[in-house]
Specification:
- This protein is α+β, with helices and mostly antiparallel strands.
- The chain is built from six helices and twelve strands.
- The strands form three sheets. A six-stranded antiparallel β-sheet has the order 5-4-1-3-2-6. Strands 8, 10, 11 and 12 form a four-stranded mixed β-sheet that branches.
- Helix 3 crosses helix 5 and helix 4 packs across helix 5.
- The longest helix is centred in the N-terminal third of the chain and has 14 residues.
Length: 228
């Protein structure tokens, strides 16, 4: 798998980083197999400058064949610069091999305030492409963290996978699975095979490297849970 991490691409008037990540993913999907786009929650703290929720995004591509990380980085860099929003501080990271230290950095960024220097030093030491694209370039922190967190297969939720964003209203479980969700289950791990799921803003969690829709029963239908 090849992972593209991006963060801090928005300002208070623009669409968020997740939106840009989905636009970039759509463009890349013409040449690569898209596995999804995930949102990863980072630390919420007044010492951390962020626009809304301090979440970063990771685009997941099939890394086999012609997926060259440097070529993809340059292609994504061009798209991000074209969509630059004044006042934003974008960062971009691309990796096909993600060492444990990068995952540890991502976990740290969820618990503590980390610095741009920490992100840059780690990426440089591990030879992972990490670039800032304007402003303070603080987005390199979230971009590297997103790559590390996505690589675990156990963090975040999919803001795009298969046709999940095309579903709305009540849909049978079978339709949810057909749209690209790997499984529907309760929070305690029990599989759900029958009934209807309220699919407005369905955002499956990334667990075991797969999109899993966790749900709870309302008495009439299954309600999706948003888990990070």
């Amino acid at each position: 798998m090849l992972i593209i991490g991006l963060d801090d691409t928005d300002n208070h008037e623009s669409r968020g980083t997740g939106y840009l990540a989905r636009q970039i993913a759509a463009a890349l999907s013409t040449d690569y197999t898209l596995q999804g786009v995930c949102r990863h929650q980072l630390l919420l703290d007044r010492r951390v400058p962020y626009t809304t929720h301090n979440s970063s995004a990771a685009i997941l591509l099939d890394g086999r064949g012609t997926a060259d990380p440097i070529a993809i980085l340059e292609r994504v860099r061009t798209m991000m610069l074209a969509a630059f929003n004044p006042g934003s501080d974008p960062g971009l990271c691309v990796a096909s091999t993600v060492p444990d230290e990068v995952t540890e950095f991502g976990r740290l960024a969820q618990r503590e305030v980390v610095s741009q220097a920490q992100a840059r030093d780690l990426a440089a030491r591990l030879d992972i492409p990490l670039v800032g694209l304007g402003g303070t370039e603080d987005g390199v922190i979230g971009a590297l963290a997103a790559v590390g967190l996505a690589a675990t297969g156990e963090d975040g939720r999919y803001i795009l996978v298969g046709r999940n964003r095309e579903l709305s209203g009540l849909q049978p479980v079978a339709a949810v699975l057909k749209a690209g969700v790997a499984a529907v289950q309760t929070r305690d791990g029990k599989p759900v095979r029958d009934g209807s799921v309220l699919c407005d803003k369905l955002r499956p969690a990334r667990r075991g490297g797969r999109p899993i829709a966790f749900v709870e029963w309302t008495g009439e239908h299954w309600l999706p849970l948003k888990l990070d």
